[in-house]
Amino acid sequence: MCLHFLSENGVIKGGIGGVSLVSPAQKVWRVAQALGDIAFAYPFSLVLLEIEDTLRSPPAESQTMKAAARASIAVTTFFYLGCGCFGYAAFGDDTPGNLLTGFGEPYWLVGLANLCVVLHLLGGYQVYAQPMFALVERRFGAGVVDAEMPLLGRVSVSRLCFRTGNVAAATAVAVWFPYFNQVVGLIGAFTFWPLAIHFPVQMYLAQGKVAPWTGRWLAIQAFSAGCLVACGFASVGSAMGVFGPERS
User: Fold this and answer.
1) In this predicted structure, what is the pLDDT of residue 206?
2) What are phi and psi of 208, to 5 degrees?
3) Which residues of 166-177 are buried (b: 16+ CB within 10 A; e: fewer)?
4) Which of 4, 45, 113, 129 has its CA 20 to 30 A from that of 153?
5) d(CA 148, CA 152)
């Protein structure tokens, strides 16, 4: 899509300094929001263990997941960078926060892109919702009641009600709460460090029996602390965008 508009414009817009803003403070907050958006773009740690649990060995599950994680991160980064760079080159300072809502034409291209997003989210929701479904159903499994239903056969009433209610609630929140860059950055800033950095680091230190205050331990803890500071910076900038005068 970005390449389409870039070819229509005939020139590369934007500059090396990024979007022109009124004050340096605005530039700082936009950078912080961008860090939050980047953090939100890499949330696979939420489903990493669930996916690994479905693998079979040999080869070892960890070996398979390392190769899969490297490949997925490389491909994801390529597409994200391509979308960001080509989008800025095509639209310059007028680049919309959401490329699918910033313009209406050509309608067929925007419609095709939205269809791809729907297909992506249908599968993504299933993957991300399964851990929560499994937790709730394990906890309240004793209260499951089976019943015969037309066309469905024998189903679990509690499972049917909970999953249907969860999907309805998630849809209502998604419609009610605007999905713009600052909200995405705020969510990414709050979730990235504990889920993708802190807990994996602590598990690694415990599994590897890394002695405290050794060089290796200090390096890992410094990395974790640096990520915490970056997420804190991103959360402040994103909060300024959501609640401050720069809200869009």
Assistant:
1) 92
2) -85, -5
3) eeeeeeeeeeee
4) 129
5) 8
CA distances from 214 to 209, 211, 217, 225 (A): 11, 6, 5, 16
Classify strands 146-149 and 153-156 as parallel, antiparallel or unpaired.
antiparallel
Residue pair 240/246 in contact by the 8 Å Cβ criterion: yes
Residue 161's identity, in one-letter code, is C
Q: Give the pLDDT of residue 226.
A: 94
Flag residues of the chain having pLDDT under 70: 1-11, 14-18, 21-22, 46, 98, 100-105, 141-156, 177-180, 244-248
CA separation for the pair 135, 91 (Å, rounded): 45
d(CA 3, CA 86): 7
CA 225/CA 193 separation, integer angstroms: 9
Largest CA-CA distance found in the chain, in angstroms, rounded: 65
Tokens of 153: 């056969």
Angle (nearest 5°) at CA 220 between 41 and 224: 40
pLDDT of residue 31: 85
Per-position DSSP letters for 149-215, written without gaps between them: ETTTEEEEHHHHHHHHHHHHHHHHHHHHS---HHHHHHHHHHHHIIIIIIHHHHHHHHHTTPPTTSH
For residue 148, what is the enclosing H or E element? strand 146-149
Single-letter code of the amino acid located at 130: Q
How high is the pLDDT of residue 178? 61
Domain locations along the chain? 100-177
DSSP letter for 95, please.
Answer: -
State whether the Cα torsion 204-210-212-215 is positive or negative: negative
pTM (predicted TM-score): 0.69
